[in-house]
Amino acid sequence: MKKDLIFTPALVAVGVVLFMLRATGMPAHIAVSVVGVVMLAVYTALTKKDWKIPALEVIMRASYGLALVFGVVIMRVQGVVALAIVHKAAAALFLLALVVLSFTKLLAKKQAK
Fold first, then answer.
1. 47-88: per-residue pLDDT in tens?
2. Alpha carbons 4 and 28: distance in angstroms, whole number
3. Contact 8/103 with Cβ under 8 angstroms?
């Protein structure tokens, strides 16, 4: 649970900063997304045995990966609105799944006491 208390706020902050592309600019957007990948990889390695809802854990990580892949595709293929929609939807799904998982883990910990 301590790992969740460290990584969840940091990953939420990464997600929020990534949604502020117009304010941060593309170089910062790319740098923050790379930091997010590293943080998510470390978080996954540290908490793999503690997954309460494995399907949602996989969806959260896959949605970050999907947003990352579509972000790279958007850089190469300009002007396709559907790509931007999928990119933003996957990013929103990542944040939603992260928040739901965090609350689920907090509630499970409170009920265990």
1. 888 888 899 999 999 999 999 999 999 989 988 999 999 999
2. 25
3. no
CA distances from 72 to 57, 67, 84, 87, 100 (A): 23, 9, 11, 10, 27
Please state the pTM of the whole predicted model: 0.89
**What pLDDT, on a 0 to 100 scale, did the predictor assign at position 110?**
81
Ordered alpha helix ranges (H), 1-113? 2-19, 21-24, 26-47, 54-76, 81-112
Tokens of 102: 């965090």
**Rounded Cα–Cα distance for residues 103 and 19 (Å):** 22
List Cα–Cα distances, 24 to 29, 56, 97, 100, 111, in angstroms: 7, 30, 24, 27, 40
Please name the residues in contact with 94: beta carbons below 8 A apart, sequence gap of 6 or more: 15, 60, 63, 64, 67
Integer Rg of the chain from CA: 15
Name the one residue in this structure whose structure tokens are 């939603």.
Answer: 96
Q: Are 53 and 68 in contact (CB under 8 A)?
A: no
